[in-house]
């Protein structure tokens, strides 16, 4: 309970101080918002399993402490499944506070053990699967979401090995996540092209007019990809040494991205050749990534890197959801296990030093009120972060 209160309080303090928080302690899961529809069945199944084992813990502890179990069942609250156990109130009130604590804490204990076991299995998976798979070379596509940005005849295929995302090498799942996170943090990366090559490949209408005036016919049709969408060309922006004005060019995406990578104009220094670092003319959230898979040409992905991040598995859900149930249920908050745990704890610890039951009740009510406000504040901040 103290650890849970400390974690939630730390998150609130860091949020108001605008200090960086590496990972949210509480993150609301919303289907269609931050939960892909393809993972909904995993999420529902894991939530149901965690809820059932949580309530089974209460029931087993109640039977051990000779408290009658009236019933057990399942429920569905909107989209979220759950379970419940009905214990005899008279029997609960008749047993000692220590025995009550064993019953009330049994559900949280079951979730804690399940999260630890699932975490150990997750860490041991590379060793357990070593006879059947090679490790440390790449990640393998296990599923492609239909009608997504990476599906289709030229997209990713199940079983293909991904070795690189642009200049970031991928050897395992951790590298895959790190490379996508890096692509979101970094500014745009460009490609070095000589100015003569830019003018030659540019198929925008303005360059076509200039080509006619210079009596150099264009080898392909005019494409205005800076104002419309094209399946082969992409709008790039660049600067030259002679002018600080931003120039735009409609270039074939694959030949342009095959050129050397640059981040600054100075990266494109070539003796006796004037070159420019051309960047994709996209919004702040969109990235142009080159995904190297197998022996084929790299897949050009244009979009938000999170659209690629579907590496979620059932065992990972067990660790996160079961751990979240531990943190939430142990908080001294109304309608949660922490409410009853706190009451039994106050009775057990303060009965001898605070004999007045009204004073103990006042202390208990104050703790529950503060715990409820702390949890509501965390949920509010988490929802604000999710929809910001």
From TrEMBL:
Alphabetical GO CC annotations of the entry are: cytoplasm; endomembrane system; membrane
- Location(s), subcellular: Endomembrane system
Instruction: Please report the record's description of how this protein sits within the membrane.
Output: Multi-pass membrane protein
> Which residues does UniProt assign to the signal peptide?
1-17
Q: What is its EC number?
A: 3.4.24.85
Q: Which InterPro entries match?
A: MBTPS2 (IPR001193), PDZ_sf (IPR036034), Peptidase_M50 (IPR008915)
Q: Which reaction does it catalyse?
A: Cleaves several transcription factors that are type-2 transmembrane proteins within membrane-spanning domains. Known substrates include sterol regulatory element-binding protein (SREBP) -1, SREBP-2 and forms of the transcriptional activator ATF6. SREBP-2 is cleaved at the site 477-DRSRILL-|-CVLTFLCLSFNPLTSLLQWGGA-505. The residues Asn-Pro, 11 residues distal to the site of cleavage in the membrane-spanning domain, are important for cleavage by S2P endopeptidase. Replacement of either of these residues does not prevent cleavage, but there is no cleavage if both of these residues are replaced
User: Keywords in UniProt for this one?
Assistant: Hydrolase, Membrane, Protease, Signal, Transmembrane, Transmembrane helix
Q: Which residues cross the membrane?
A: 41-62, 69-88, 108-130, 362-387
Q: Where is the Peptidase M50 domain?
A: 43-363
- Molecular-function GO terms, alphabetical: metalloendopeptidase activity
The processes (GO biological process) annotated in the record are: membrane protein intracellular domain proteolysis; regulation of response to endoplasmic reticulum stress
User: Which Pfam families does the annotation name?
Assistant: Peptidase_M50
Q: Which family is it part of? A: Belongs to the peptidase M50A family.
Q: What does this protein do?
A: Zinc metalloprotease that mediates intramembrane proteolysis of proteins such as ATF6, ATF6B, SREBF1/SREBP1 and SREBF2/SREBP2. Catalyzes the second step in the proteolytic activation of the sterol regulatory element-binding proteins (SREBPs) SREBF1/SREBP1 and SREBF2/SREBP2: cleaves SREBPs within the first transmembrane segment, thereby releasing the N-terminal segment with a portion of the transmembrane segment attached. Mature N-terminal SREBP fragments shuttle to the nucleus and activate gene transcription.
* PANTHER family named in the record: MEMBRANE-BOUND TRANSCRIPTION FACTOR SITE-2 PROTEASE, PROTEASE M50 MEMBRANE-BOUND TRANSCRIPTION FACTOR SITE 2 PROTEASE
Q: What is this protein called?
A: Membrane-bound transcription factor site-2 protease
């Amino acid at each position: 309970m103290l650890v849970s209160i400390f974690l939630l309080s730390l998150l609130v303090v860091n949020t108001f101080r605008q200090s960086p928080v590496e990972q949210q302690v509480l993150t609301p899961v919303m289907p269609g918002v931050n939960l892909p529809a393809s993972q909904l069945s995993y999420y529902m199944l894991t939530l149901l399993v965690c809820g059932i084992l949580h309530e089974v813990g209460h029931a087993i502890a109640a039977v051990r402490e000779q408290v009658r179990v009236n019933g057990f069942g399942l429920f569905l609250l909107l989209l979220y499944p759950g379970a419940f156990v009905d214990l005899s109130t008279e029997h609960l009130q008749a047993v000692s506070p220590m025995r009550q604590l064993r019953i009330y804490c049994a559900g949280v204990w079951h979730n804690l053990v399940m999260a630890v076991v699932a975490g150990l299995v997750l860490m041991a998976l590379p060793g357990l699967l070593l006879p059947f798979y090679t490790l440390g070379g790449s990640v393998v596509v296990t599923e492609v979401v239909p009608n997504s940005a990476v599906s289709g005849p030229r997209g990713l295929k199940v079983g293909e090995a991904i070795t690189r995302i642009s200049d970031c090498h991928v050897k395992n799942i951790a590298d895959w996540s790190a490379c996508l996170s890096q692509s979101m943090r970094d500014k745009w990366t460009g490609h070095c092209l000589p100015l003569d090559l830019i003018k030659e490949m540019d198929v925008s209408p303005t360059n076509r007019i200039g080509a006619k005036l210079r009596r150099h016919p264009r080898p392909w049709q005019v494409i205005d990809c800076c104002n419309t969408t094209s399946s082969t060309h992409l709008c790039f922006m660049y600067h030259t040494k002679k002018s600080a004005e931003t120039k735009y060019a409609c270039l074939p995406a694959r030949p342009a991205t095959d050129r050397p990578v640059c981040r600054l104009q100075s990266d494109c220094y070539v003796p006796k050749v004037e070159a420019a670092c051309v960047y994709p003319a996209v919004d702040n959230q969109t990235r142009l990534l080159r995904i190297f898979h197998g022996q084929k040409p790299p897949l050009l992905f244009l979009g938000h890197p999170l659209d690629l991040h579907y590496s979620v598995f059932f065992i990972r859900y067990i660790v996160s959801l079961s751990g979240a149930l531990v943190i939430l249920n142990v908080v001294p908050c109304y309608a949660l296990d922490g409410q009853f745990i706190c009451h039994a704890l106050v009775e057990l610890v303060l009965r001898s030093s605070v004999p007045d039951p009204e004073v103990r009740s006042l202390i208990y009510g104050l703790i529950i009120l503060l715990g409820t406000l702390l949890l509501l504040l965390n949920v509010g901040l988490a929802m604000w972060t999710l929809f910001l």
